[in-house]
Design a protein that fits this description.
Length: about 450
């Protein structure tokens, strides 16, 4: 039987406050300064001194500005780090995030249309249909999604396709695209349910994709087909490479075998036993490319493969819940940064699995590991390259405690050669399909 809050209970609650001699002091402090400032622990800032035993020189940080392209920035940053080391390009060189953004938007639109067709017979109240319509497309993504774009479309230097108003501030573009996609979903579902032929459905979809393409060209600019690559290296020497395509540029200047890089997750929930493969239903962008695939491992393996890649001189793409226990301005992510439990005398503790199962946490942001501090072989803190510009942290770089990684990091992408042999064999396993709303399908 449900019970309302009674006046007797309210009197009891009030008396508990009155009986605590600290309560009025804390009320004044918290109401004036806020929860985080009052519960902050300065010792965390001391312990998170940005000095690391392994510290890669990766150049200047990038800035995604008012967009949700962190996953894209992080992936392209790992590639430009390697390009910088091999070709000596300037510290501020970047690959074009606007170029991959254009193709991701177009491919996500096509992916949405195909899912609308697949679910057209289901009522709009069905959870899958509701999930599709909640966000037809967005800025976020996964590692396998950026590699799908690169495999199909290549990459270009930022100088060839620079940022636009709409790539740097994507809210207007997203709301416009989602309005159009939902409108098209209405018409597409009606067309499918009227028993239209597959040719009629395909013709309708092509017409709508052409409209999406037009919107993207007007807002982001049309992607280059051929271009000349001009730059000055770190010694200020001039270079030019003519008549490149995005694919030949990738092959010549990046030249990664993208199939060698795999997503490793740490999700200690009962539905995802370790050392097995997982994928997520209805998650992706480029049809016909590799699906999003995750290998779930324990936290020790998770850390060790990241360390091995850093020791080899290569940075590491990773995904985390950046808003938890973090200070954006100082660039600190540490479980000891705030003590809200002590401030309120309340137990806030949850296990990592509980936070995932009860929607307290999921992957919200992707960044790059560029260093680690090993003390007697054990990691104590990690150097993180963010994509929020150089006005936060230490010129854009953050410090993450090892405990924070354990609690709030969910994904790293590493070359499969750094995995133990028995786990390399698991990579070929048929993945278990998770529901579209599973937290491991969240987009950074």
């Amino acid at each position: 039987m449900s019970e309302a809050i009674s006046s007797e209970q309210l009197s009891k609650f009030h008396q508990l406050i009155e009986d605590d001699p600290k309560s009025r002091v804390l009320e004044r402090a918290v109401s004036k300064n806020g929860i985080l400032a009052t519960s902050a622990d300065f010792h965390s800032e001391v312990n998170m001194d940005p000095v690391f035993s392994i510290d890669l020189d990766t150049g200047d940080v990038a800035n995604q500005k008012q967009s949700g392209r962190c996953w894209m920035f992080a992936a392209l940053n790992t590639m430009r780090h390697d390009l910088k080391n091999r070709f000596g390009v300037a510290k501020d060189f970047e690959l074009s995030q606007s170029y991959t953004f254009f193709w991701d938007k177009l491919e996500k639109s096509n992916y949405f249309y195909e899912n609308v067709i697949k679910t057209a017979s289901l009522p709009t109240s069905d959870r899958k249909v509701s999930w599709l319509m909640t966000t037809p497309q967005q800025d976020g993504g996964q590692w396998d999604m950026i590699t799908a774009i690169i495999r199909k479309y290549g990459v270009v230097p930022k100088s060839v396709m620079p940022e636009s108003y709409n790539s740097s501030k994507s809210n207007e573009l997203n709301s416009t695209l989602n309005l159009k996609l939902r409108k098209d979903a209405v018409d597409l579902r009606e067309l499918v349910n009227s028993n239209a032929s597959s040719e009629e459905v395909a013709s309708f979809k092509e017409k709508k994709l052409a409209e999406i393409y037009r919107i993207l060209v007007y807002t982001l600019g049309e992607p280059p087909v051929k271009f000349d690559f001009e730059c000055r290296d770190s010694d200020n020497n001039y270079h030019i490479d003519q008549d490149l395509t995005p694919q030949t540029f990738f092959e010549k200047y990046v030249n990664w075998n993208l199939d060698d890089y795999v997503s490793i997750i740490n999700a200690p929930t009962d539905d995802k036993p370790y050392n097995h493969m997982y994928t997520i239903e209805m998650l992706g962008n480029v049809l016909g490319e590799r699906e999003v695939r995750h290998l779930n491992v324990d936290m020790n393996t998770f850390r060790q493969v990241a360390i091995k890649q850093l020791e080899s001189g290569e940075s590491v793409w990773f995904g985390c819940d950046v808003g938890q226990e973090s200070d954006r301005k100082k660039g600190i992510m540490d479980t000891e940064l705030y003590h809200k439990d002590e401030l309120f005398d309340v137990d806030f503790s949850m296990s990592k699995a509980e936070r995932l199962d009860y929607s307290e946490s999921l992957m919200t942001h992707a960044m790059v590991l560029t260093g680690v501090d090993l003390v007697n072989g054990t990691p104590t803190k990690w150097k993180v390259e963010n994509s929020w510009g150089d006005k936060v942290g230490t010129k854009g770089f953050f410090v993450m405690s090892n405990n924070w990684m354990e609690e709030y990091c969910y994904q790293v992408v590493v070359n499969k050669k750094f995995l133990p042999e028995e786990l390399q064999k698991v990579l070929t396993e048929e993945p278990k399909v998770l529901a579209p709303w599973d937290p491991m399908g969240s987009l950074a």
